[in-house]
């Protein structure tokens, strides 16, 4: 035999031997799988070494030791080869003996598929073992068991939160700077969307659809927004299109100062009379913050004059507005108003009277003291005696003039 013929014969022998032992298994399990989905978990092949005793009878499947899932987390197991489906069962229990009865005439691949239950818990591990193959003597395969990698179940949507937003906020600004964080402990976050609505329609939105990381963030600044009420929310998708949404936040943007209103009634009074002053405000967007509304009146203890009443209001966004009102206190006597003030039991009040100003701030009244009026100044008897004395003096002077002329 020539040398070339010997080499050719060795090659043929090697090829024949390889065909006999080339049977193998392949881990094709994905790293994660969503509930309710079917996925390939293991591929293995068998070969034949002859034309007889070459029937594969059955395959025994079990879960790997590292699996935290149970048979109850699977709704279906399928074993197929090409277009031939040898087993399709919805009643899953392990160990699972799958009948095949396939004649092996060449190297043949078999694929094992698992279908997860739609109610399986999140973050379970699923792995498959081929622990036994029943076949004729001329069916060859590599040493058992064949083991897949672990598949982690994903049944929950990603977590999502606004990092810098509080519901029912009142802000004195014309922009919304929004920061959204999202994460998924099993599969990656694939998309984050942020939406702003007003009372009637979508105002603006921003979507990042190329995230593909476990921990993601989306930051956007919506500017040039008009005063008004806005509704803000965000959504996040993971690899399997599980979707989660934030709550809808109500935000009021208000850059306009509130309108303050002050009045004092009556505007002109005599000493001893009362003046009622009121302070209020209006705001079209965030509303008046009554706890931050103040009113003041600077009252002098001296003589008559004009007195100012200052009203300051604030809205819930922190904008402020103010205005003033005034009233005039007369400085001469001569009316019933100069009589002593009456108490609640209709008896004359004693001591010095005060010029009382009632301060009404958004429905709340308080008393602001005015200048003190001496009691002798308000007493009618004083003025009667003063008048009598003056008349007597005038009469005496007239008599004296008459007698001088004589």
What are the main properties of this structure?
406 residues, mainly beta, Immunoglobulin-like, 3 domains, six-stranded antiparallel β-sheet, six-stranded mixed β-sheet, 3 helices
What's the helix and strand layout?
Elements: H1 3-21, E1 25-27, E2 32-34, E3 38-48, E4 55-63, E5 74-81, E6 84-89, E7 96-103, E8 108-116, E9 125-126, E10 128-135, E11 139-140, E12 146-147, E13 151-154, E14 159-162, E15 169-171, E16 176-183, E17 189-197, E18 202-208, E19 215-222, E20 228-238, E21 243-245, E22 249-253, E23 259-265, E24 268-269, E25 274-282, E26 294-297, E27 305-314, E28 320-329, E29 353-361, E30 364-373, H2 375-378, H3 380-405
Parallel strand pairs: 2-13, 15-22, 24-28, 25-29
Antiparallel strand pairs: 1-3, 3-8, 3-11, 4-7, 4-10, 5-6, 5-8, 9-13, 10-12, 14-16, 16-19, 17-18, 17-20, 20-21, 20-22, 23-25, 26-27, 27-28, 29-30
How many domain regions?
Answer: 3
CATH architecture of the largest domain: Sandwich
Helical content stands at 10-25%
Spans of at least 5 consecutive residues with low confidence: 6-23, 334-359, 362-373, 375-379
What structural class do helix, strand and pairing data support? Answer: mainly beta
Euclidean distance between termini CA atoms: 190 Å
Q: In the CATH hierarchy, what is the class of the largest domain?
A: Mainly Beta
CATH topology annotation of the largest domain: Immunoglobulin-like
Range of strand content: over 45%
Number of helices: 3
- The backbone outline, from C-alpha atoms, is rod-shaped
Q: Number of DSSP strands?
A: 30
Kindly report the average pLDDT value: 82
Give a quick account of the main beta sheet: strands, pairing sense, barrel closure: 6 strands, antiparallel
User: What is the gyration radius calculated from CA atoms?
Assistant: 48 Å
């Amino acid at each position: 035999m020539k040398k070339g013929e010997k080499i050719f014969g060795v090659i043929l022998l090697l090829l024949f031997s390889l065909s006999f032992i080339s049977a193998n298994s392949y881990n094709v399990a994905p790293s994660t799988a969503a509930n309710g989905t079917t996925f390939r978990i293991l591929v293995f092949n068998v070969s034949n070494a002859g034309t007889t005793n070459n029937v594969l009878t059955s395959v025994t499947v079990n879960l790997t030791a590292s699996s935290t899932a149970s048979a109850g987390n699977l709704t279906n197991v399928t074993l197929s080869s090409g277009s031939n489906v040898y087993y399709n069962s919805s009643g899953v229990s392990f160990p699972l003996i799958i009948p095949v009865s396939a004649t092996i005439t060449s190297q043949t691949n078999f694929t094992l598929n698992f279908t997860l239950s739609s109610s399986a818990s999140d973050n379970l591990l699923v792995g498959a073992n081929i622990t036994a193959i029943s076949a004729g003597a001329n069916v060859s395969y590599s040493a058992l068991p064949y083991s897949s990698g672990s598949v982690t179940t994903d049944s929950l949507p990603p977590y999502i939160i606004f990092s810098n937003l509080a519901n029912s906020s009142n802000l004195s600004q014309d922009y919304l700077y929004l920061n959204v964080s999202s994460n998924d402990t099993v599969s990656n976050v694939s998309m984050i969307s942020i939406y702003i609505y007003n009372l009637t329609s979508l105002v603006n939105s921003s979507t990042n659809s190329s995230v593909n990381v476990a921990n993601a963030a989306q930051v956007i600044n919506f500017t040039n927004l008009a005063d008004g009420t806005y509704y803000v929310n965000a959504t996040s998708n993971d690899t399997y299109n599980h979707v989660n949404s934030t709550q809808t936040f109500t935000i009021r943007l208000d850059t306009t100062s509130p309108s303050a209103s002050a009045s004092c009634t009556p505007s002109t009074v005599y000493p001893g009379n009362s003046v009622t002053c009121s302070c209020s405000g209006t705001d079209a967007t965030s509303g008046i913050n009554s706890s931050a509304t103040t009113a003041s009146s600077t009252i002098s203890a001296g003589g008559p004059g004009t007195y100012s009443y200052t009203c300051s209001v604030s809205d819930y966004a922190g904008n402020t507005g103010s205005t003033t009102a005034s009233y005039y206190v007369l400085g001469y006597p001569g009316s019933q108003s100069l009589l002593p003030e009456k108490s609640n039991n209709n008896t004359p009040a004693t001591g010095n009277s005060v010029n009382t100003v009632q301060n009404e701030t958004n429905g709340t009244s308080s008393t602001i003291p005015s200048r003190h009026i001496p009691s002798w100044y308000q007493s009618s008897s004083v003025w009667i005696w003063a008048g009598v004395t003056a008349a007597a003096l005038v009469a005496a002077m007239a008599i004296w003039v008459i007698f001088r002329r004589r």
